């Protein structure tokens, strides 16, 4: 999971064991607390792991506005997609990483 500030380009990368709400919430909470400044907005794709009541509740509690991309418009997330290419794929490659390695990737 890649979180990027669009102004400063500050970036926090984390791995989740599975792309689901259950695994995403703790990682999202961790990412939000690691930014050295207040988060005002959170923009995501249309994935159900992000667009759900638990994520909305967390962001509402923290007064963070949630926005989402238009359907089938990957260029709405161009910043994070370019970071995925230059950072994530450069160091971890394009292959699948087994879920058992997610905690170790995060420790790294």
What is the CA-atom radius of gyration, in angstroms? 14 Å
Largest sheet: 2 strands, antiparallel
Number of H/I helices:
4
The unreliable regions are: none
Strand/helix succession: EEHEHEHH
What does this structure look like?
This protein has a domain at 2-76: Nucleotidyltransferase, domain 5. Strand 1 and strand 2 (11-13) form a beta hairpin. The model has no long low-confidence stretch (mean pLDDT 82). The two termini are 14 Å apart. The protein is built from 4 helices and 4 strands. By secondary structure, the protein is an alpha+beta fold. One of its GO terms (molecular function) is nucleic acid binding. InterPro entries: Integrase_cat-core (IPR001584), RNaseH-like_sf (IPR012337), RNaseH_sf (IPR036397). It comes from Candidatus Kentrum sp. SD. This is Integrase core domain-containing protein.
List keywords for this structure.
Nucleotidyltransferase, domain 5, two-stranded parallel ribbon, Integrase core domain-containing protein, single chain, 108 residues, globular, 4 helices, two-stranded antiparallel ribbon, alpha+beta
């Amino acid at each position: 999971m890649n979180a990027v500030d669009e102004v400063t380009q500050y970036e926090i990368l984390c791995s989740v064991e599975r792309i689901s709400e259950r695994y995403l919430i703790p990682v999202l909470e961790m990412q939000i607390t690691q930014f050295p400044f207040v988060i005002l907005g959170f923009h995501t794709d249309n994935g159900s792991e992000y667009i759900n009541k638990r994520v909305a509740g967390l962001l509402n509690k923290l007064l963070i506005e949630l926005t989402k991309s238009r359907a089938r418009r990957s260029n709405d997330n161009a910043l994070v997609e370019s970071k995925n290419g230059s950072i994530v794929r450069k160091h971890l490659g394009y292959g699948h990483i087994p879920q058992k390695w997610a905690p170790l990737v995060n420790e790294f």
